[in-house]
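Why predict the complex rather than its parts? Because the way molecules touch one another can change local conformation, and only a joint prediction can capture that. The input here totals 1324 residues.
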Amino acid sequence: MQLSREDLLTAYRTMRTIRDFEERLHIEFATGEIPGFVHLYSGEEASAAGICMHLTERDHIASTHRGHGHCIAKGVDVMAMMSEIYGRKDGVCGGKGGSMHIAEIAKGMLGANGIVGGGPPLICGAALTAKTLKTGGVAIAFYGDGASNQGTTLESLNLAKIWNLPVIFVCEDNGYAEATSSSYSVGGTQTKRAEGFGIPSVEVDGHDFFAVYDAAREAIQRARAGGGPSMLHVKTYRYYGHFEGDATTYREPGEAEKVRKERDCLVGFRGKVTEAALLENKDLDAVDAEIADLIERAVKHAKAAPLPTEEDLLTDVYVSY
Amino acid sequence: MQLSREDLLTAYRTMRTIRDFEERLHIEFATGEIPGFVHLYSGEEASAAGICMHLTERDHIASTHRGHGHCIAKGVDVMAMMSEIYGRKDGVCGGKGGSMHIAEIAKGMLGANGIVGGGPPLICGAALTAKTLKTGGVAIAFYGDGASNQGTTLESLNLAKIWNLPVIFVCEDNGYAEATSSSYSVGGTQTKRAEGFGIPSVEVDGHDFFAVYDAAREAIQRARAGGGPSMLHVKTYRYYGHFEGDATTYREPGEAEKVRKERDCLVGFRGKVTEAALLENKDLDAVDAEIADLIERAVKHAKAAPLPTEEDLLTDVYVSY
Amino acid sequence: MSKKSYRQAINEAIASEMRRDPTVIVMGEDVAGGAGTKGQQDAWGGVLGVTKGLITEFGPERVLDTPLSEAGYIGAAAGAAATGLRPVAELMFIDFMGVCFDQIFNQAAKFRYMFGGKAVTPLVIRAMYGAGFRAASQHSQCLYPLFTHIPGLKVVIPSSPYEVKGLLIQSIRDNDPVIFFENKVMYDDIEEVPDEPYTIPFGEANLTREGDDVTIVAIGRMVKMANEAADRLEKQGITCNVIDPRTTSPMDFDTILDCVADTGRLVIVDEASPRCNMATDISAVVAQEAFGALKAPIKMVCPPHTPVPFAPNLEDLFVPNADRIEKAAKALMNYQIKEPA
Amino acid sequence: MSKKSYRQAINEAIASEMRRDPTVIVMGEDVAGGAGTKGQQDAWGGVLGVTKGLITEFGPERVLDTPLSEAGYIGAAAGAAATGLRPVAELMFIDFMGVCFDQIFNQAAKFRYMFGGKAVTPLVIRAMYGAGFRAASQHSQCLYPLFTHIPGLKVVIPSSPYEVKGLLIQSIRDNDPVIFFENKVMYDDIEEVPDEPYTIPFGEANLTREGDDVTIVAIGRMVKMANEAADRLEKQGITCNVIDPRTTSPMDFDTILDCVADTGRLVIVDEASPRCNMATDISAVVAQEAFGALKAPIKMVCPPHTPVPFAPNLEDLFVPNADRIEKAAKALMNYQIKEPA
Ligand SMILES: Cc1ncc(C[n+]2csc(CCOP(=O)(O)OP(=O)(O)O)c2C)c(N)n1
Ligand SMILES: Cc1ncc(C[n+]2csc(CCOP(=O)(O)OP(=O)(O)O)c2C)c(N)n1
Ligand SMILES: [Mg+2]
Ligand SMILES: [Mg+2]
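Output of the joint prediction:
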């Protein structure tokens, strides 16, 4: 833990923002006002936060259908995200993308993705840009345990290796792909797969911000120094269903509640930093209040914001046509 | 070596047939009479022969663009193959497939394939049929070092593992994918990749019929006994270019000649079996003569055989339409 | 006979064929759900519950949850079909075809031709298609024109619960690879559906209503929209044929040409992107084969050439509707042939 | 200005853009060749030698040989394009699109729309298409209708050495994803091609010849066939417009409609499979927009609905040719409008 007080507050703020954003969406979705598919990241916050803490705007990330957390950690505006999820014109994608396609390339966020395994090839491209133009940037592919079985993901491991690209593959293994256990769908292990392609890999406790942060630092430093790709197998858990509306009957009763109680990343973080006297409870409480207010404003704003107009249907297909 | 005299002659006959078939095509192609792309298997014979010796018609193989050797080893009629390569109506595919699509499903030969990596998913399907219908059959996916980087191949390793399918993945690594060295294109190693998916694997000298034969026996026995997939990394070499017409300037001068001289599978086989007094040179010479005659007849026949007729253009698209 | 949903009709079709033929198997992502978990097995029955209960009746050897590897398992379904099984593979959303298209169009579709007529590949791929679910650009496409383009594939697009049962049973019994399109906003549609198995043959269009003035051809869910428009037009004294082709490959052009010979006016309604879609396909055949019968231009009612937008109001503007069909038909009624200069 | 092959014209186009703009890179399987070997580097320059010499001039950092992983590297090209490079990625044969289509049609094509206009993806994918090479079913397809169907993609099909250079330079400078179709049997075609760089704008058809009787629209290599047919027809007193649309997305429908307004007769020649192809696409727009001008049915000259056969005599029967075009045009000249009953 060589993090400054400011860093620690930033880390906590990121995780808290993600958590509150998702918990609120969980409630709002139930009212029927939010259109489409929504996949919540609650429970996995330490992964996005611990990794993106090392990044700046010259670095790129590619995300998944479960993308809100990565977006927030990479600095996409929370108000504009919320508007997007409500399909509003002032959403970060003008209301045309929605939850599954939130993106902001200028911030280095190459998009959530409705196609599982869609991100890893794209992130190899971002890494190639960084390498070719010598920007010093790195590129992070977030993907799930399910996505680890997609050919696109596996090809990307090899591509990044043989081109020696500054990519970090972050397998966020929350134990499930939809209603299927990773114990069923994943032959072998994530770390051995990476090693099969000659890529150094490590398993990380995804409930522990500091574990993720440390593992990411090493991998990102290696990538920035020209040492090529790495892979982190982040063991984590999603508190809610695959998407909102999923009854999660494939879980043991009480399973999610148990993880939430015993291994929550926010609780764990608070415990560690207050015990070590790095921060006080009141510092963290202040962040909580700040974020509660932000999310409240974001939802209010999004609900009241205007929809896109009829002309918007036809714009943004091409730069020119 | 627990092979009977008969078995040894069969093994030699298979390798000799493949060799002569390919060497003759090399000559015939140069005359311009053979249409399309032709990829020769000369040099790799021990792989197809050593593996297919263990198979019967209930077992399936999926092959590649470099498929003649696998076809012959799996028992497809040599006359009908030659006719196919000349585009004749009495070709094994009626002249509609050609070299890249030779197939005979009734013989368990699911096709050469113009799409690199096309075969492994298909062979998982053949294995699933065997498992579901309890035929006792196994299924072999032949694929190259280049194909080992295709997502389809990698997904198939996982699929076969988690469904516990009777598949043997045979990576025929001849050192090149077109003009690209496998040392450039393959991150990690083939055996470690398989292990990454939890699949037992072994590296085998593909110039040595007996090494291939023994490794295949073990893997096939395991598969037949319900032990799931295995992978063999067969190190081999192609004597000719990627396709006929390739000047192979990406090789060191003399490279192919050296392998042919020092590690040829037919020469090696002859040496071993005669030294061990299992067969005499004259037994093998008799096979040579027999095959020389067969290939001569096949080419003569193919050249004289009629082309498909105009109506053939429109048939065989659907069973019914 | 009783009222059944589109969803239930599909489920019954698969179940009855699995009972009849032990070589029929089902596979896909979470077609059962719960594999390897400590919770409920058959937890999902597919993402929208369509295959629920099958694993309970037929067991995990015939109802296979797959890893998230469409190229792998769709290819495996093709290989299984060519070697003795009759797989019904689910590709969840047709939008995912981009990761496994090769196994469909270069492998399964071409086996028979490439192998000189020696292959038989009784493969069914079920997939959801269409807009209206607020599922945005990567989960709302139609894409059936891409499959219709490919020789060797059959393409089925059922427009109601009755249709979906008969066409799916036919698909499973068929000996060629079939791509079966289910409209995701129609799963709760309800109509009378026989309990017993029945088949609807491929390549025979359904003339869902007859009229004298305009022929409307509509695809999938658009059949409902077309009939709604025809209702309205009838009140204005304009009567329509409404044709549901049922299958776009094979396509029953004869019925369309016959109807156009009678009405001389044709509107085609297609929810797919407008370039090289079914509307252009049908229009072109009519313009070639029934030109002499045409009294007016052929009108196409399609979405714009854009991805499917997320915002609900934009998505509603995107999808063709009864208004636009009505307007197109009326425009044809008002068309005056000008003498060429 | 000097005589150059289609192959050389492509090579020059890429080289000149690489000189002009350091963000232009090339990638693909063996676009150089020899990677990791002990022999010659730049051993291939692509499977038919089109990119030969580029690595020598621009080095391995800008000319990247790829592993056999199309989804991986085409996706990487899309990601690189969205982050500041201008990749020219080679997909060898367009037939291989089935393993990487997702990265093209769901990713690159939709970035801009899904991301609310904030993405710019200057990606070029070059690929060989077409029959006539005796390369059989999986190496001979056209498939451009599939790409034309997808909003967000541009589709370019150059018909000669002059065209290919100007259109490729335009493609590389263009800010949208472009699928660039090269006809594999045209690489040795030769004509006058300027040495200096020049561009040909998208969406402007080339009226390769003018006439009064019949308008022929032809795609890619079919432009040559159409002009051959027009030569023959001219000797018989029938004069033709022959239109090369150059790009099918955007498509210059205006030029086609103008020509049809003049001639009243239209033949469309398309080498792609006949269902939902460019012939149907063009026909449908004309039947909708220029119906009043038509004096006869719209004729489509296309291959049959079959995979491409291997046997040379069958393949020659498969591909449209000047004979069939000539016959179609004459049929239109002889067409008599019958009074509708
Ligand atoms: C190519 C593709 N196949 C299937 C789906 C449907 N789908 C969406 S999310 C998902 C499960 C993903 O699991 P995982 O990668 O573990 O991510 P998680 O949802 O657990 O975050 C599936 C199957 C899809 N969107 N894209
Ligand atoms: C999907 C796909 N990509 C590219 C090609 C072109 N191609 C044909 S063979 C080949 C190299 C294959 O290398 P490998 O798998 O090692 O087999 P080998 O030729 O050495 O037997 C390539 C790139 C193809 N046919 N299919
Ligand atoms: Mg997961
Ligand atoms: Mg090889």
